[in-house]
Each structure stands twice: as C-alpha cells, then as structure tokens.
Write a structure and sequence with these properties.
Residues 276-281 have low confidence and may be disordered. The protein has 693 residues and is α+β, with helices and mostly antiparallel strands. β17 and β18 (445-449) form a beta hairpin. The protein is built from 24 helices and 26 strands.
Length: 693
C-alpha cells in the first residue's frame, strides 16, 4: 500500500488511477484534489478560495433564515441556498467519493459527503413532501455550516503545505546565475549551466562561489556557515576546496571547477531536503484510516436496520425510511471531521499570536511525543557572529590602549574578526585613524604603520616571534574556551591579547535548563570545531556533543536516534540544518535564521527566542490532548446514538419515537460539533510565558 503524499491516506497501488511520477519516483493519490495539490498547489488553493467565497455568505443567510428571519416560503429559499453550498461549493467532496470508489477505498471526503448529504436530503424531503415525513424538522443550516467549516480548514492546510516547496527554492537560489570564466587571460560572464568540470573561474570578494571547485590561485576567507555550520570564516589558498553557494569574503580567487549540477554539495542538500520532506505522514491519516471502516459500517447499519424493521418488525416503509435517515443523520461525521481541524485551527492561531509559527498539523502531532532535542550551535544557541569577549593588556597598556591599537590595524579589514574588534572600539568611544601602511597575510594577520610611525601587528601569536612567549599560555587558555585569540604587538613587542568568540544568546542558558527540567534528552550537534562546541556545551550543561558534523551527518545522527525509538526535534537556523530539520520528527527553525531553515522547519520561532521551542512542544502536547478528547467524543457519540437511531428504543417507545428522533438526531449532531469546537477553543488560553513560571 502506498501513502498519499498530501493527505496521508493509504492507496492501493494496484487499483489507483491517480498516479504522478516525479524525479523517477511514483506518487499515488486518493483523490483528484490531492493530486492537484501535488501538481499545481496554487490552482488547488485558488479553487478552495473560490468555493469558500460562495459557501460562507450563503451559509450566513441560511442560519439567519433558520433562527431569526421566519416567513412564508423561507424553507424553499433555504433548500435552494443550502443546495448551492452542498453541491457547488462542496462538489469537491463528491469528486472525492468518486475517486474513493474507483480506488476501492474510503476517505474523509466520503464521510463528509454522506453525512452532509443525509442532512440536506432529509431536509429537502421534509420541505418538498411534508406529508410523507410528519416529524418535520429541517437541517439546511447544519449541512451548510459543516461544508463551509471543512472547506476553510482545508484551505488553511493547503496554504501551509504550499510553503514546503519554499525550502528547495531557497536552496537553489543560493547558487549564482552567472560565473566569471577565465580563458586565455580574458574574463567572460557565462550562465551557470554552461560551466564544465575543469573550467577556470574568477570569484571576486563578496560574491558567491558558483560551484564546488579547487582554488588554483589566490588567498581569501570564505564564509561556509550556511553549508558547514562553521561560525568563523575559513582561510582558503591554493589546492584547497571551496563549496558552491558559499561566500568569498576578502580576496579574489581563481578556482578550477570540480563538480557541477546534481553532483555539487548544495544540490545534494537540496535532494536530501526534498526526499526527507516527501516522507512525512500527515496527522489526518488516523481519521482517514478510521473512515475507511466507519463509512461502510454506518451505511450497512442503516440499510440493515431499515430492512430489519420493515421485513421483521413490520413497521412500514415510512418508518423504515426514517430509521435509515436517522442512522445517517445521527452518524454524520461532522464531529469526527472537525475534531482535528478545529483543534489545529485554534492552536496554530494562538501560537502565531505568541510568536510561534506552526506550518502543519503533523508538526503538532509529533511535537507532543518528542523526547529528544538536537540543537545547532551557531545562530541557535549563539548570536552567529563574532564579538570581543576578553581584552588582556600587558603591563604598560590599558584595555582602551590595546583596543585602540587593534582597531587601527583592523579598521581596513573586511574579516569578521576585524569587524568585531572595530565595532567594540566604536562602542567604547575610541577614536581610530587609518594606518599609513597596511599589509595582510591570509590566515596569519595584519601589519601596519600608524600615524605616529609605530609598527602594529594584529593576528596570530606567532607573528610576534620571540615577543610572543609571555602570551602563549594565555592564548591557549582562551582558545581552549572556544575563543579566537588575536595577539597585539607594537614595534615588535607584545602588548596584549584580544579574544573574539561567537557568544551565547541571552536566555540560551535558561532555556536549556528549562528543557532539561522538562525531561528532554539534549544533544548539541554542530558543524563548528570541537573546541568551540565543547566550550558552549560545558557552559550550558549539555552532556551530549557532536562537532564538525556535515549536513548529511546531522541527518544520519537523527536517523539513528529515530531507529533507537526516540522522537526527535531538531532546532536550527542554517542551510546546513535544512536536511536535519526535515528529517527530524519536528523541525524547529529560529526565525532570524536563513530562509532555507525557515522553509524547511515545521515550526518557526518568529521571536528568535529559544524558550519558544519548549512552548511549541508544550502546545503540541495540549493540542493533541484536545484532539484525542475530540475524537473520543465523536466516536462515543456515534457508539451510543447509532443504536438508538437504528431502533433500539422502538420496543420501549414504539415507532412513535421516530416522530421526534430525526430532529433529535440533528440536535445531537449539532451538539456534538459544538462540544468539539468548544473544547478546542480552550486552547486559546495558552500563553507561552506561562511555561516559564
């Protein structure tokens, strides 16, 4: 049995006529609407929007005519208006029934179509032939409201589903469209698709590297954070590999193309995201699976009950028809149909007000069962940019003196570390002058002459030669804490050290403590180096650490955890997190992170607050609790009242019970729906801040 990639319904591959092949893989669908959503999501959304625009205004009029505006022929007007909602706005449900019959299965469309049709058809019969149905009672408002509510819920679901493809688009957009090809000393711009293995390309500072390559000439720093998770830029020189989509920062590079097209690392990440996303199972699968048994059972019960009372009970054709109609009305799956959407609608709306964007019901379902958290470091626990953390002047210098010297050397630098030093100097009100002379050695540091003729050095400790001995131990201590130590020297003598690091976000420590208290197993999995990862883990009290993890390795780690029976939530913000975000049972993306992470994550923390990750998980538990309560009520309602509708009370009250039973069935059906919606509305009380009290 295959699974519909849109709704999660089981589909028999041998009988399904709704098939679509994409990138060598076949997908099977339970209905034409699911297939349309897969192929042309924008068209499916447009169709739903048009149906809703018709359904709700008419439904409001029907409700007013039912309860407020009573006048002659009002029933006939409602017959027509409710019919428009039922058969025009709700035509997709009948198409779903047709597809289900062709595929020899039952889906939610069948439940909705039979239930609402029973309510509408009985009401129409009472209106057109009141003498045949003396019990009276019309339920046009019920059928119209159910159709309108379910269309609205489906529309909102489709809107969130359509965003899933955005992750792939964001990945693809990272590659530049044009490359600078070098041939015979000349430079020409060519489209990316015309690049071939072995081509020589020029990449200017500030540009993205077109494709996976090897440096042929030049030195520079490359920002690989969006692919590897490494927080600091990586020095690149001759013979070293560079990754397509990463950013060249400081110097021009000439590169030889090594991989193109589908073989590049970025393309592999794109493929991983697509495959992981397509393996998801929607929350609606439970209701559809139940529907596959419930629908035929209700129809059989209705037919059998009517036939039994007609042939055995001798109650007559009129009562037998009422038995059949009563069973269908009282078993109308409105409560079952809205049990999940109502809770999801309230939950996701309330979450959005709290700064938590939940993109699918599946994310809520899985969030309720999470027991393990995998958290990225850079940009998630930390700020994602280097900041000055320590200023260590030697004798004869103050902190301001040392910072002024360093800022003079770094003021012309485009390196993130240099920018951090200059920014710190500005914040401390230090005046900086441009140096008279300036030289930069890739991966080593900066030498300059200031306006007073002093020779200033800022870089690796080794640049100071013999003068560096007094600072070696201190530099090692700082680097063991995950920091980058910048040595400052004047006229060949050591002046002090400045340490730069990607610092923890405010609130990260408290958030991790709250997660541990809640009982979650926490893993720090990062592409950053072991020293930086271990330092952050030690500061936060995280016991499980994996460093230098590539995107595919992060995904493999999560896959292994899932194989061990754990339900995993991944919290991250970078492109390198996209495969892990989609592979995890729940992907939680930091809102301030890259567009890819936001698109790939099932839950997005818009306020960039790690505390909200725990709030999202708690909301998932509460929402699933409400859904289970709703489903229990819906099933219990049917379990108790279907036998009543089938004639269980005839021996006690005689057939006269059917003078009121159809009306009672409609009231009970409406009460069931009201109960489900009211129970779901309790989720509106949820407040993220209450989690931390």
């Amino acid at each position: 049995m295959a699974t519909d990639p849109i709704c999660g319904m089981y589909v028999d591959e041998s009988t399904s006529s709704l098939v679509r092949e994409r990138e060598g893989r076949k997908y099977y669908f339970c209905s034409a609407s699911c297939k349309l959503q897969f192929e042309k999501p924008e068209m499916e959304i447009k169709n739903l929007k048009a149906s809703i625009a018709v359904a709700w205004p008419i439904t409001i009029i029907v409700v007013l005519l039912t309860y407020i505006l009573h006048f002659a022929y009002a029933d006939y007007i409602m017959l027509v208006l409710a019919g428009i909602v039922q058969f025009y706005a709700g035509r997709r449900f009948y198409a779903g029934v047709s597809d289900a019959i062709k595929n020899r299965s039952a889906n939610m469309d069948m439940l909705i179509a039979i239930g609402t049709s029973a309510a509408w058809a009985y009401s129409a019969a009472v209106t057109l032939a009141p003498g045949i149905f003396p019990a009276g009672g019309i339920y046009f408002d019920t059928s119209a409201i159910i159709v309108s509510l379910i269309l609205t819920g489906t529309y909102m679901q489709r809107i969130t589903e359509s965003k899933a493809a955005g992750a792939i688009s964001a990945l693809v957009s990272m590659q530049p469209k044009i490359a600078h090809a070098v041939e015979n000393g000349n430079i020409a711009d060519i489209p990316l698709e015309k690049i071939e293995i072995g081509d020589l390309l020029l990449v200017k500072p500030g540009e993205r590297i077109p494709t996976d390559s090897v440096v042929a000439d030049g030195e520079s720093s490359v920002d690989e954070s969006m692919v590897t998770g490494e927080s600091m830029p990586i020095a690149k020189g001759r013979g070293e590999k560079v990754i397509g989509g990463t950013v060249n920062l400081t110097g021009p590079l000439r590169i030889n193309v090594e991989r193109v097209g589908e073989d590049t690392i970025l393309s592999q990440i794109t493929r991983i995201v697509r495959d992981a996303a397509s393996s998801k199972v929607p929350i609606q699968r439970l209701a559809d699976k139940v529907a596959s048994y419930f629908v035929p059972a209700v129809v059989i019960i209705g037919i059998f009950s009517a036939a039994a009372w007609y042939f055995v009970g001798n109650v007559g054709i009129n009562t037998s028809i009422l038995v059949f109609v009563s069973v269908l009305i009282i078993a109308c799956p409105c409560a079952l149909g809205i049990a999940t959407p109502a809770a999801l609608l309230v939950s996701s709306g309330r979450a959005a007000e709290q700064g938590i964007l939940i993109k699918s019901g599946e994310s809520i379902e899985k969030a309720s069962a999470v027991d393990t958290l995998v958290i990225d470091k850079t940009g998630t626990l930390t700020n994602g940019r280097p900041e000055v953390t320590d200023i260590v002047p030697l004798e004869g210098y103050t902190e301001k003196d040392l910072l002024a010297l360093a800022a003079t050397a770094e003021i012309s630098s485009e390196h993130p570390i240099g920018k951090a030093i200059v920014e710190k100097a500005k914040n401390m009100g230090i005046d900086m002058d441009l140096p008279q002379k300036f030289s930069y050695r890739q991966g080593v540091g900066i030498s300059c002459i200031d306006k007073n003729g002093r020779s200033i050095i800022a870089g690796r400790v080794e640049m100071l030669g013999e003068g560096s001995r007094s600072m070696v131990d201190r530099a090692e201590m700082l680097e063991n804490e995950g920091k980058t130590a910048v040595a400052i020297g004047v006229n060949g003598k050591a002046a002090g050290l400045i340490a730069v690091s990607d610092t923890l976000k405010e609130g990260s420590a408290k958030a991790i403590a709250a997660m541990k208290k809640a009982g979650y197993e926490i893993w720090l999995v990062t592409g950053d180096n072991n020293r930086a990862a271990s330092a952050v883990a030690a500061e936060l009290g995280i016991e499980h650490v994996v460093s230098e993890a590539k995107p595919e390795e992060k995904m493999e780690i999560i896959s292994k955890m899932q194989g061990d029976g754990k339900v995993v939530a991944m919290i991250g913000d970078g492109v390198n997190d996209a495969p892990a975000l989609t592979k995890a049972d729940v992907g939680i993306a930091i809102g301030a992170g890259t567009e890819v992470a936001i698109q790939a994550g099932g839950i997005v923390l818009m306020r960039n607050n790690l505390y909200d990750a725990l709030a999202a998980l708690e909301l998932g538990k509460r929402t699933m609790g409400k859904i289970r309560q709703n489903l229990f009520w819906a099933f219990a309602y049917n379990a108790v009242l279907i036998p009543v509708a089938a004639g269980a009370l005839i021996p006690v009250f005689t057939v006269s019970i059917y003078n009121v039973l159809p009306m009672f069935a409609a009231v009970a059906m409406a009460f069931s729906s009201v109960t489900v919606v009211s129970n779901s509305l309790l989720l509106a009380r949820f407040k993220a801040k209450d989690i931390w009290r």
